[in-house]
Amino acid sequence: MTKSAEHFDLIVVGAGSGNSVLAADFDHWRVAIVERNTFGGTCLNRGCIPSKMFVYAADVAHQAGNTANLGVDSSLNGVRWGDIVNRVFGRIDPIAQSGEEYRQSQPNVTVFKGQARFIGHKTLDVNGQQISGEQIILAAGARPFVPPIPGLTSASEAQVEYHTSDSIMRLTKLPEHLIILGGGYIASELAHVFNALGSAVTIVNRSERLLAVVDEDISAAFTKHMVERMNCILNSPVINVKQVGSEITVTTKARAISGDVLLVAAGRVPNADQLEVTCTGVNVGPQGHVITDEFLRTNVEGIWALGDICHSIQLKHTANEDTRVVAHNIAHPEDLRRPNYSGIPYAVFSHPQIASVGATEQQLRTEKRVYKRVVRYYSDTAYAWAMEDTSSFVKLLADPKTNLLLGAHIIGPQAPILIQQLIQGMQFQLTVQQMARGQLYIHPALTEVVEQALLEF
Q1: Which residues are CB-neighbours of 386 under 8 A, at least 6 positions away?
Q2: 443 is catalytic
Q3: pTM for the whole structure
Q4: Nearest alpha carbon to residue 165 among 287, 259, 269
Q5: Which one of 1, 84, 138, 427 is CB 3.0 to 4.6 Å from 132, fit for a cystine?
Q6: Residue 381 CB: number of other CB atoms within 10 A?
């Protein structure tokens, strides 16, 4: 600790999930919160919450004009993009502002706004102010990854204007033609949003399938749907990106495509490097993540990490779990707890929706595990007859000896809701028979497709 450093009992770097650490246990601690952007972090301001508000509007817009098979003739009369943006951020921005004002009003909390970086052992510099802490929580999250493609990362005057998920939702007008680099969940959700609301969309992806990390059957079905819906250039790495006036041209191995707005959605990288955590001795993994033990402690005593900065799986619900654990472990060092990551579920709120928990079939094959496989289509249920759904399905993977689920994957309407009972069943180690027959299923609700899939075992 340098002589000029102001000392705190606890420093929290990052006011996303890290802001939730400060429960009653810390009311009498002297606390510093450091945030370089807006309070609330990625989820509230640039990620989960605003994107799903856009997705809901897109879902409604997409349904209009796609109801003829029900005997209902409908059309989309128009989209007021400015009103959509104002509805989303008119709700979100005041929450972020009030969160910061609340922390600033607390007598035991000091808020530092600016980029933090370590300059010595448990000592940080924030815009020229030096602070140190007995306990430090690294909760600074991650940022969009910009791949080293000529025209994107060049420092020359020819550098192309592009957006990431941080900025694309605050555009002042809808793009005429949006080009998206990437094929993960961010690319897939935003492709749905802008396509449904009226933009022409082209997805450029270096692999042959979208959402390549999800279960292979789900990925294949989703890719087929998106190829039928919009322009997809797959299995084609980008060679360069150029801009002339307002026209942006992406040249791939296959061909060139031009549009007026470019979205780079090629993944996210942890912010450990920007904090210069190695200056305080914290170990970092090969992918840039802060390394922690099972209690979320780093190798430096008194320094902890939570959320995206220490996870390759960057999900808000895992960050929330981390937050609860770190808060408890710091306040109760005699009773250390481990986060529960068993069967981490996730969802993709595109169209169609996707939800998954547990192992994929390709993972089980790689691990040479024996498994049983069931695929059940929504169309086997009465509710799907009402929807005229012929492509959505549930895929379950189970251990033939124990009859416990190893993985569950759903593509179709209400997928994130339908999978929840399977998540709970896996968590409480119910067999597929217990999940199928241990309770009544409402007829003719869509949940019957889950019941039917379980019964096939």
Answers
A1: none
A2: yes
A3: 0.95
A4: 269
A5: 1
A6: 22
Residue 266 has pLDDT above 50, yes or no: yes
Residue 1: per-residue pLDDT:
45
257 burial via Cβ count (<10 Å: 0-12, 13-18, 19+): middle
Give the active site residue among 121, 192, 225, 443: 443
Contacts of 456 (CB under 8 A, 6+ apart): 374, 376
**Mean local confidence (pLDDT), 327-337:** 97
79-134 pLDDT, tens per residue?
999 999 999 999 999 999 999 999 999 999 999 999 999 999 999 999 999 999 99
pLDDT score of 4 more than 90: no
Please name the residue that has the structure tokens 């492509």. 391
Residues 6+ apart with CB under 8 A from 108: 26, 27, 28, 29, 30, 31
Residue 394: both structure tokens together: 């549930």
Q: Looking at residue 2, what is its pLDDT?
A: 47
CB atoms near residue 149 (< 10 Å): 20
Q: Say if residue 32's pLDDT is above 90.
A: yes
